[in-house]
Amino acid sequence: MLKDFLLDRSEKNQLKKALYKQLHRDRRISKAELLERFHVPNTTMTRMLGELAGKGFIRQCGFGQPSGGRPPALYEIVPEAGYVIGVEIARTDVRVKLLDIQFQIVGEDQFILTKQHTSERTIQLIANIIGALVQEHQVHSLLGIGIGAVGPIDREKGVILNPESFPAEGWRNVPIAAILEREFSIPVVLNNGANTGAIAEYYAQSPEEESILYCISGYGIRCGFIQEGQLLNRKEGDVTSYDHIIIEVDGRPCICGNKGCLTTYASFGAMFKSMEEQGIPASIDQLLNSHDPRVRKIMIESAKYYGIGLANMINILHPHTVVLHGKLIYDDQEYYEEVVRSAKEYSYSHNRQLNIRKGSLKEKATSIGAAIQVFDQFFM
After folding, report:
1. What is the per-residue pLDDT across 60-80, written as a single tens digit (0 to 9) for each?
2. pLDDT in the model for residue 20
3. What does 299-336 look like in DSSP terms, one character per residue?
4. N or C of the chain: less Cβ packing under 10 Å?
5. Which residues, in sequence order, are CB contacts of 108 under 8 Å at separation 6+?
6. Strand 221-227 with 230-231, pairing
7. Higher pLDDT among residues 379 and 340, named by residue
8. 122 CB-near residues (< 8 Å, 6+ apart)
9. How many CB atoms are located within 10 Å of the residue 79 CB?
10. Comparing C-alpha atoms, which of 332, 314, 330 is closest to residue 322?
11. Which is nearest to 86 in space by CA: 174, 185, 193?
12. Closest CA to 96 of 105, 85, 83
């Protein structure tokens, strides 16, 4: 099985695993190209390709362009040789996806979080969905489960520590990775949702995008930064620290004890508070659908401050691309454009030509990235 092959960390297996990862990265590649990259004898390469093909992990997939002789045979991985699960645990809902080893979605399900969704009930529902997806799609080789969750978390121990703003109680120090590992006897990897979203967008990027700052805006501002496949802050488990960049000295009081934090100007909560102070019913629907000029003014002012916060992050991290994710980003073009305008205006001049775009994977990014991270763990 593919899982046993990937779990084998013996020195003898390392070269074959590296070969498999190269095939996975390039999608389709010839033996001649592989020989150039691995610098092994032709007989060794032929033997390794034969072994991987014999086990059903790779296959021939046609021929490339000839360069004077016979056209070279091309190889690719077999997508159905293994599957991974990606889970997103957000403040409002949970999404579960089954992906093949090429990270194509095979099946999915989701549910809304309510006051009744304690950690025990939520984890049981996740396990039930995973079991149903595996049975429905007749999966025989499930490699692992990746989870992208609201933090703070302990990544090494796989524990959700104390997430903010969950509707239900009972979410303190939840060992979710250990619980699901016992249930399914496969590796479980936990990370912050902003980090897994960054991983997904990085894999989906064009080749020239060397680094990505991925920002989720909504009830808070959560960010992940990835460069050349490596995440910043690999040990710390709270990506909401970006939430507390000071953008206004002696500004609005924040729950963290400081004043002028980004979250007090750019989050849903900040906008709701401004609406309530003016006697306007506060909700996401009101933000998106109201024609009240006071609501529009609150939104655009919030977008300006969000852009200022982004400019500070950009000036420090120097990303190649900034990817924005969030309901207002996708559903309100004026809000999005003001965020981009403000971020570029307040960035250091060399950063103003920066590529800032909406997330290409939208709501799928966090769970897809969680699944990708499971696969990557086998090669660390």
Report:
1. 988 877 666 678 889 999 999
2. 94
3. HHHHHHHHHHHHHHHHHHH--SEEEEESHHHHH-HHHH
4. C
5. 95, 96, 97, 98, 133, 367
6. antiparallel
7. 340
8. 89, 94, 113, 168
9. 15
10. 314
11. 193
12. 85
Residue 89 is encoded by which pair of tokens?
């645990």
Contact status, residue 380 vs residue 345, Cβ threshold 8 Å? no
- Rounded to whole angstroms, the Cα distance separating 316 from 324 reads 17
Give helix 42-54 / helix 11-26 axis angle, nearest 10°: 80
Q: How many whole angstroms from its chain centre is CA 169?
A: 26
β-bridge pairing 188-192 and 142-149:
parallel
The C-alpha atoms of residue 158 and residue 151 are separated, in whole angstroms, by 11
Sign of the CA dihedral with 233 first, then 235, 239, and 240 last: negative
Closest CA relative to residue 199, chosen from 372, 83, 26, 362: 372
**Which tokens go with 100?**
């093949």
DSSP single-letter state for residue 283: -
Most confident stretch, 201-210, 237-246, 260-269, 281-290: 260-269
Closest-CA residue to 217 (of 238, 237, 240, 233):
240
What is the mean predicted confidence (pLDDT) over 148-175?
Answer: 89
- Provide mean pLDDT across the span 236-265: 85
- Specify the long-range contacts of residues 228-235, CB closer than 8 Å, at least 24 apart: 229/202, 229/376, 231/195, 231/198, 231/199, 232/317, 233/195, 234/155, 235/155, 235/156
